[in-house]
Amino acid sequence: MSGWRLSRLLAVLAAGSLGAVSAAAELSGQADPSLLTVVLWSSVAVGACALGAVELIRTRAEDTQARQRSAEEAQRAGVQRLAELRAHFEPRARGVLPFGPLSGWYFCGRVRALSEIVRWLSEDGDARARVVTGGPGSGKSAVLGRLVVMSHPELQSRVPPGEIEGAPVGTVCPLGAIDGCVHARGRTVNEVAAAVAREVGIEAHNSDTLLVALSDPIPLVTLGVDLALIC
Fold first, then answer.
1. Among residues 14, 126, 171, 178, which is most buried (max CB within 10 A)?
2. Coil, helix or strand for 183?
3. End-to-end distance of the chain based on CA atoms, in angstroms?
4. Is the pTM of this model over 0.70?
Protein backbone atom coordinates (compact mmCIF):
# COMPACT_ATOMS: atom_id res chain seq x y z
CA MET A 1 0.00 0.00 0.00
CA SER A 2 1.43 3.38 -0.96
CA GLY A 3 2.17 6.00 1.66
CA TRP A 4 -0.52 8.44 0.60
CA ARG A 5 -3.17 5.71 0.51
CA LEU A 6 -2.21 4.58 3.99
CA SER A 7 -2.37 8.15 5.27
CA ARG A 8 -5.77 8.65 3.66
CA LEU A 9 -7.09 5.42 5.17
CA LEU A 10 -5.80 6.27 8.65
CA ALA A 11 -7.36 9.74 8.42
CA VAL A 12 -10.77 8.32 7.48
CA LEU A 13 -10.60 5.64 10.18
CA ALA A 14 -9.62 8.28 12.74
CA ALA A 15 -12.55 10.46 11.65
CA GLY A 16 -14.88 7.48 11.89
CA SER A 17 -13.62 6.56 15.35
CA LEU A 18 -13.98 10.16 16.49
CA GLY A 19 -17.55 10.25 15.21
CA ALA A 20 -18.41 7.03 17.02
CA VAL A 21 -16.82 8.26 20.27
CA SER A 22 -18.60 11.60 19.99
CA ALA A 23 -21.93 9.85 19.50
CA ALA A 24 -21.33 7.62 22.51
CA ALA A 25 -20.33 10.57 24.68
CA GLU A 26 -23.36 12.58 23.64
CA LEU A 27 -25.75 9.76 24.42
CA SER A 28 -24.10 8.84 27.72
CA GLY A 29 -24.28 12.48 28.87
CA GLN A 30 -28.07 12.57 28.66
CA ALA A 31 -30.12 11.02 31.45
CA ASP A 32 -33.11 10.36 29.26
CA PRO A 33 -32.33 11.07 25.59
CA SER A 34 -35.25 11.29 23.24
CA LEU A 35 -35.78 8.67 20.54
CA LEU A 36 -34.84 11.20 17.88
CA THR A 37 -31.56 11.99 19.64
CA VAL A 38 -30.71 8.30 19.92
CA VAL A 39 -31.48 7.74 16.24
CA LEU A 40 -29.48 10.75 15.09
CA TRP A 41 -26.36 9.99 17.11
CA SER A 42 -26.59 6.29 16.32
CA SER A 43 -26.69 7.25 12.64
CA VAL A 44 -23.59 9.37 13.15
CA ALA A 45 -21.76 6.44 14.74
CA VAL A 46 -22.83 3.94 12.09
CA GLY A 47 -22.06 6.35 9.28
CA ALA A 48 -18.62 7.10 10.66
CA CYS A 49 -17.74 3.42 10.95
CA ALA A 50 -19.21 2.68 7.53
CA LEU A 51 -17.11 5.44 6.01
CA GLY A 52 -13.96 3.81 7.34
CA ALA A 53 -15.06 0.38 6.06
CA VAL A 54 -15.84 1.76 2.60
CA GLU A 55 -12.46 3.49 2.45
CA LEU A 56 -10.72 0.27 3.48
CA ILE A 57 -12.52 -1.70 0.78
CA ARG A 58 -11.78 0.94 -1.85
CA THR A 59 -8.10 1.07 -0.87
CA ARG A 60 -7.79 -2.70 -1.12
CA ALA A 61 -9.51 -2.67 -4.52
CA GLU A 62 -7.14 0.04 -5.77
CA ASP A 63 -4.14 -1.94 -4.53
CA THR A 64 -5.41 -5.08 -6.23
CA GLN A 65 -5.91 -3.22 -9.51
CA ALA A 66 -2.43 -1.71 -9.24
CA ARG A 67 -0.90 -5.17 -8.73
CA GLN A 68 -2.84 -6.52 -11.69
CA ARG A 69 -1.67 -3.67 -13.91
CA SER A 70 1.90 -4.22 -12.76
CA ALA A 71 1.66 -7.94 -13.51
CA GLU A 72 0.18 -7.28 -16.96
CA GLU A 73 2.91 -4.75 -17.76
CA ALA A 74 5.58 -7.21 -16.64
CA GLN A 75 4.02 -9.92 -18.81
CA ARG A 76 3.93 -7.65 -21.87
CA ALA A 77 7.53 -6.61 -21.23
CA GLY A 78 8.54 -10.27 -20.95
CA VAL A 79 6.86 -11.15 -24.24
CA GLN A 80 8.49 -8.20 -25.98
CA ARG A 81 11.88 -9.05 -24.50
CA LEU A 82 11.60 -12.67 -25.65
CA ALA A 83 10.74 -11.51 -29.17
CA GLU A 84 13.79 -9.21 -29.18
CA LEU A 85 16.10 -11.99 -28.02
CA ARG A 86 14.70 -14.38 -30.59
CA ALA A 87 15.04 -11.89 -33.44
CA HIS A 88 18.62 -11.02 -32.56
CA PHE A 89 20.15 -14.31 -31.39
CA GLU A 90 18.23 -17.14 -33.05
CA PRO A 91 19.38 -16.51 -36.65
CA ARG A 92 22.98 -16.27 -35.47
CA ALA A 93 22.61 -19.48 -33.45
CA ARG A 94 21.25 -21.16 -36.57
CA GLY A 95 24.21 -19.99 -38.62
CA VAL A 96 22.19 -17.85 -41.03
CA LEU A 97 21.94 -14.15 -41.78
CA PRO A 98 19.39 -12.20 -39.73
CA PHE A 99 16.13 -11.74 -41.64
CA GLY A 100 17.40 -14.06 -44.36
CA PRO A 101 15.24 -16.56 -46.27
CA LEU A 102 16.86 -19.73 -44.84
CA SER A 103 14.85 -21.50 -42.15
CA GLY A 104 17.06 -24.43 -41.15
CA TRP A 105 19.94 -24.88 -38.71
CA TYR A 106 23.36 -24.62 -40.36
CA PHE A 107 25.65 -23.74 -37.47
CA CYS A 108 28.98 -25.58 -37.38
CA GLY A 109 32.48 -25.11 -36.05
CA ARG A 110 33.59 -22.76 -33.26
CA VAL A 111 34.13 -25.86 -31.11
CA ARG A 112 37.11 -24.52 -29.18
CA ALA A 113 35.54 -21.15 -28.40
CA LEU A 114 32.23 -22.69 -27.35
CA SER A 115 33.90 -25.39 -25.26
CA GLU A 116 36.03 -22.89 -23.34
CA ILE A 117 33.10 -20.55 -22.63
CA VAL A 118 30.69 -23.37 -21.69
CA ARG A 119 33.31 -24.79 -19.34
CA TRP A 120 33.84 -21.36 -17.78
CA LEU A 121 30.08 -20.87 -17.31
CA SER A 122 29.74 -24.32 -15.75
CA GLU A 123 32.53 -23.89 -13.21
CA ASP A 124 32.19 -22.13 -9.85
CA GLY A 125 34.68 -19.68 -8.45
CA ASP A 126 35.92 -18.01 -11.64
CA ALA A 127 34.43 -14.51 -11.61
CA ARG A 128 36.69 -13.11 -14.31
CA ALA A 129 35.13 -11.69 -17.47
CA ARG A 130 35.57 -13.28 -20.88
CA VAL A 131 35.94 -11.26 -24.08
CA VAL A 132 34.89 -12.73 -27.41
CA THR A 133 36.79 -10.82 -30.06
CA GLY A 134 37.78 -11.26 -33.68
CA GLY A 135 37.67 -9.67 -37.09
CA PRO A 136 34.48 -8.91 -39.06
CA GLY A 137 32.69 -12.09 -40.07
CA SER A 138 34.80 -14.30 -37.80
CA GLY A 139 31.73 -15.63 -35.97
CA LYS A 140 31.64 -13.64 -32.74
CA SER A 141 27.89 -13.08 -32.94
CA ALA A 142 27.31 -16.70 -33.91
CA VAL A 143 29.16 -17.95 -30.81
CA LEU A 144 27.26 -15.60 -28.50
CA GLY A 145 23.96 -16.38 -30.22
CA ARG A 146 24.57 -20.09 -29.76
CA LEU A 147 25.32 -19.62 -26.06
CA VAL A 148 22.28 -17.43 -25.40
CA VAL A 149 19.80 -19.61 -27.31
CA MET A 150 20.97 -22.82 -25.65
CA SER A 151 20.86 -21.19 -22.20
CA HIS A 152 17.39 -19.63 -22.53
CA PRO A 153 14.55 -22.12 -21.76
CA GLU A 154 12.04 -20.63 -24.22
CA LEU A 155 14.58 -20.17 -26.99
CA GLN A 156 16.09 -23.61 -26.54
CA SER A 157 12.63 -25.17 -26.75
CA ARG A 158 12.56 -24.06 -30.41
CA VAL A 159 15.83 -25.83 -31.21
CA PRO A 160 15.40 -29.19 -33.02
CA PRO A 161 16.41 -32.07 -30.70
CA GLY A 162 18.87 -33.36 -33.28
CA GLU A 163 20.68 -30.03 -33.26
CA ILE A 164 21.37 -30.39 -29.53
CA GLU A 165 22.08 -34.10 -29.54
CA GLY A 166 24.42 -33.83 -32.53
CA ALA A 167 26.41 -30.89 -31.19
CA PRO A 168 30.05 -31.58 -30.22
CA VAL A 169 30.46 -32.61 -26.59
CA GLY A 170 30.85 -29.66 -24.25
CA THR A 171 29.59 -27.01 -26.67
CA VAL A 172 25.95 -26.77 -25.51
CA CYS A 173 25.43 -24.12 -22.84
CA PRO A 174 23.49 -25.40 -19.79
CA LEU A 175 19.97 -24.06 -19.32
CA GLY A 176 19.94 -20.95 -17.15
CA ALA A 177 23.71 -20.49 -17.28
CA ILE A 178 23.31 -16.92 -18.59
CA ASP A 179 21.22 -14.44 -16.61
CA GLY A 180 20.69 -11.83 -19.29
CA CYS A 181 21.87 -10.00 -22.40
CA VAL A 182 22.59 -6.30 -22.83
CA HIS A 183 23.67 -4.33 -25.90
CA ALA A 184 26.17 -1.56 -25.12
CA ARG A 185 26.19 0.02 -28.59
CA GLY A 186 25.75 3.78 -28.30
CA ARG A 187 25.14 3.66 -24.54
CA THR A 188 26.97 5.34 -21.68
CA VAL A 189 28.29 3.42 -18.68
CA ASN A 190 25.30 4.40 -16.58
CA GLU A 191 22.86 3.46 -19.34
CA VAL A 192 24.47 0.04 -19.62
CA ALA A 193 24.34 -0.33 -15.83
CA ALA A 194 20.63 0.52 -15.79
CA ALA A 195 20.01 -2.01 -18.57
CA VAL A 196 21.89 -4.69 -16.63
CA ALA A 197 19.80 -3.94 -13.54
CA ARG A 198 16.56 -4.31 -15.49
CA GLU A 199 17.78 -7.53 -17.07
CA VAL A 200 18.60 -9.23 -13.78
CA GLY A 201 15.73 -7.68 -11.80
CA ILE A 202 17.46 -5.46 -9.28
CA GLU A 203 17.05 -1.80 -8.29
CA ALA A 204 19.88 0.27 -9.73
CA HIS A 205 20.03 3.32 -11.99
CA ASN A 206 23.75 3.84 -12.56
CA SER A 207 27.07 2.04 -12.24
CA ASP A 208 27.60 2.99 -8.59
CA THR A 209 24.22 1.71 -7.39
CA LEU A 210 24.60 -1.39 -9.56
CA LEU A 211 27.90 -2.32 -7.94
CA VAL A 212 26.35 -1.84 -4.50
CA ALA A 213 23.30 -3.95 -5.39
CA LEU A 214 25.30 -6.83 -6.85
CA SER A 215 26.37 -9.18 -4.08
CA ASP A 216 27.73 -11.86 -6.43
CA PRO A 217 29.03 -11.96 -10.01
CA ILE A 218 26.36 -12.61 -12.65
CA PRO A 219 26.76 -14.42 -15.98
CA LEU A 220 25.73 -11.80 -18.52
CA VAL A 221 26.29 -11.38 -22.26
CA THR A 222 27.15 -7.79 -23.18
CA LEU A 223 27.30 -7.00 -26.89
CA GLY A 224 28.97 -4.11 -28.68
CA VAL A 225 31.24 -3.05 -25.83
CA ASP A 226 33.65 -1.56 -28.37
CA LEU A 227 30.80 0.60 -29.67
CA ALA A 228 29.71 1.96 -26.30
CA LEU A 229 30.04 5.64 -25.39
CA ILE A 230 32.98 6.29 -23.05
CA CYS A 231 31.51 8.76 -20.59
1. 171
2. strand
3. 39
4. no
